[in-house]
Amino acid sequence: MDRKQFLSNSLKAAAGVLVAGPVLSSAACNSPAPEGETTPNDTTSPGTPLVLEQIALPYAYSALEPSIDASTMEIHYTKHHAGYVKKANAAIAEEGVKAATEAELIATIGAYSAGIRNNVGGVWNHNMFWQVMTPSATGGPTGKVLDALNGGFGSIDAFKEAFTEAAMKRFGSGWAWLVLRNGELEIGSTPNQDNPLMDVSDFKGTPLLGLDVWEHAYYLHYQNKRNEYVANWWNVVNWDEVARRMA
């Protein structure tokens, strides 16, 4: 089957999902994420409201230039992401959320208000986003990630094309994702601050790579040229982090 036929047959129009071939067992896909993966304070004592935290940015605001400029990084991290953390924790306390961990809260997010859903999603998504980028990018995936992407999508170029399409076709604000689901790699997108771990999401899986396509992530530097933002973002992808999440 040639690449175009594979991509055409694999694209699930109703869900906006692209499915690749099997790379891991379904047991591996369904295993819990490593403790402390994105949020350091993920547990709470009985009777104490869950408190979500913003991870420390693992590099300087200017470290990802020219792909992502320092001003955008600083505003994104100190205003937008910090704002999600503040609002999420206020809503958790106000609504008396019973979930003991961030993972439990996200998995049952449909039981809570839109404020909880949007802000808790914003916390988790951005904590991951900072980790899947690096100023020391190797230029491309290697090892098991390279094999998985080649095996699933035909080539790295085909994978990037499909992921870029998901990012570009997400109308308005949202995220593009590479996930592992039932032992297969899938590409899709979610609106607003939803993510594939949420019970309410139409696109589900264990996130391996995520791209923020809200305008606040790129507009200062790229204005309305989302395509340029996505193209340059590949230069700072942390493939070592993707490999860690795939393990």
Summarize the structure in short.
With 247 residues, the chain is of the alpha+beta class.
Can you put this structure into words, describing what you see?
This protein has a 5-stranded antiparallel β-sheet with strand order 1-2-4-3-5, sandwiched between helices. It is globular, with a radius of gyration of 17 Å. It is of the alpha+beta class and 247 residues long. The longest helix is centred in the middle third of the chain and has 26 residues, at 70-95. Residues 1-16 and 21-41 have low confidence and may be disordered. It is built from 10 helices and 5 strands, in the order H-E-E-H-H-H-H-H-H-E-E-E-H-H-H.
> Could you say what the CATH topology of the largest domain is called?
minor pseudopilin epsh fold
Number of strands: 5
Straight-line N-to-C gap: 29 Å
Oligomerization category of the chains in this entry: single chain
Give the SSE order as H and E letters.
HEEHHHHHHEEEHHH
Task: Outline the low-pLDDT stretches.
Answer: 1-16, 21-41
CATH class of the largest domain: Alpha Beta
**Number of helical runs?**
10
- Portion of residues in beta strands equals 5-15%
Q: What's the overall geometry?
A: globular
Q: In which order are the strands of the major sheet placed? A: 1-2-4-3-5
Count of individual domains: 2
Classified in CATH, the superfamily of the largest domain is Iron/manganese superoxide dismutase, C-terminal domain
